[in-house]
Amino acid sequence: MPLVTKTISEVREQVAAARRAGRTIGLVPTMGALHEGHLSLMRRAREECGLVVVSIFVNPTQFVAGEDLERYPRDLPGDLRRCDEVGVDVVFAPEAEEMYPPGDSTWVEVTGTLVEGMCAPHRPGHFRGVTTVCARLFNIVGPDRAYFGEKDYQQLKIIERMAADLKFPLAIVPIPTVREPDGLAMSSRNVYLSSEERKAAAALHRGLRAGEEAFAQGERNAAEIVRAARRVIEAEPGVRLQYLELRDAETLEAVERVARPAVLALAAFVGRARLIDNVVIGGADRQCRG
Amino acid sequence: MPLVTKTISEVREQVAAARRAGRTIGLVPTMGALHEGHLSLMRRAREECGLVVVSIFVNPTQFVAGEDLERYPRDLPGDLRRCDEVGVDVVFAPEAEEMYPPGDSTWVEVTGTLVEGMCAPHRPGHFRGVTTVCARLFNIVGPDRAYFGEKDYQQLKIIERMAADLKFPLAIVPIPTVREPDGLAMSSRNVYLSSEERKAAAALHRGLRAGEEAFAQGERNAAEIVRAARRVIEAEPGVRLQYLELRDAETLEAVERVARPAVLALAAFVGRARLIDNVVIGGADRQCRG
Lengths: 290, 290
Known about the structure:
2 copies of one chain form a homodimer.
Chain A: E1 3-5, H1 8-20, E2 25-30, H2 36-48, E3 51-56, H3 76-86, E4 90-92, H4 96-99, E5 106-110, H5 126-141, E6 145-149, H6 153-165, E7 171-175, H7 195-216, H8 222-234, E8 239-248, E9 262-270, E10 273-281
Parallel strand pairs in A: 1-4, 2-3, 2-6, 3-4, 6-7
Antiparallel strand pairs in A: 8-9, 9-10
């Protein structure tokens, strides 16, 4: 079993000992409720690093008022079993007070085009919470490599930006989205779905694939690609789209015509679950099935 | 002479080599135009650390529109001589593009009581620029200890807060203000003063001492302590006070009665120079003369 700790000082001891032994440090930041998507990150970290640290922390600062902070799925015993299966060395599962003691008042925030569209306007303050907690985790663990899923595409781009801008001495390693057999992206929030909703949710990836297919057929007009995806998704009455946007894959600026890799990204409500997904079109295909 | 470099990668090589040799790393962040105040920081770093890195960077993000970014004094050859005298190992003097390459868009910001008063309302965005550059410098150098002057008291408290909140694995070391024989706090901006202004500027510290003296005589009412200081400073027609405030020495909240250590702090224009100074009252006296 991995060593499990709630304290910053104990994580640091473990990392310092591994460093002295010349080992590379890998960090997989998570909010727990680990699924195959997370395991994919952890396995890659295990392959690449001498010490693998998984953080499990349902970070309150990235939840917007009215969101699912209280009911977000928590399963530490199950998470530890999954970490053990992958051979994780250290699980850092702090209480909120360890990460944000009284008086804490520092924010890390990425501005500009990365936070203009997609989830940002619908979850004001969310990405500020993400970068704020990741900066802390990077300083606590001091990893050489930190692993993030492409499922949370905007988050990935924002964290890459933050790590580069603040000169964190580490590499951000993106890991392809892991999907269910019917294409639904793995997500801790999938447990919110009833069996009927679960079937409806498959329309999200079907829609994204329809957008991909339009591009493959030669369509370069962004509105047409989005329309092709939207048509498929809106045919499913159990899904309520929040947004469906085609944006530059690096800057996340809105695009009118696809001339460079672009990300077709969405958020949708299926029942009470808010789900996100994306595909990159016009680039190397890095999606895989779990 | 110290090794002088403009690149992050070269600083990191120097630091990595020193780390391998088991040396402690000290960082003295400066904007150059080094004076006895800076030298006092550097000497302490030299005493305490195996490798002393001084950064010299006139950080554009901490200057507010209309301030003295363009005319801020710059003297790299003189600075290097002073670094050499103290035995500094590495001088990191990057161009703005090294610190903020195109696309850079991440800010580090302390919120709350520390940025409610004193310089904050008069220099909107200033402290955000300070924390943003210091977070970068901490990640570039990775020091064990970083040295800051008490002359910039609010900056010191904000950086202490930022470093603690973001869990930077380093100690912030405060260094007492160094003063001219007539009490004027050493500042790179003192070079803006004409000889007449230079004489007038001594009223600032005389005023602060009058506030200290009122406290020493038993006065605990903040307004009375401020009044005692203000009376002395306003008797000098060459000085235009921007603010003169008595605040809690740790939280920087306004105080009405002095029951714990408090900082009597001011900013004032003398000619075209904006100068700041402070004394801590009700605490251990750590001021010294240069």
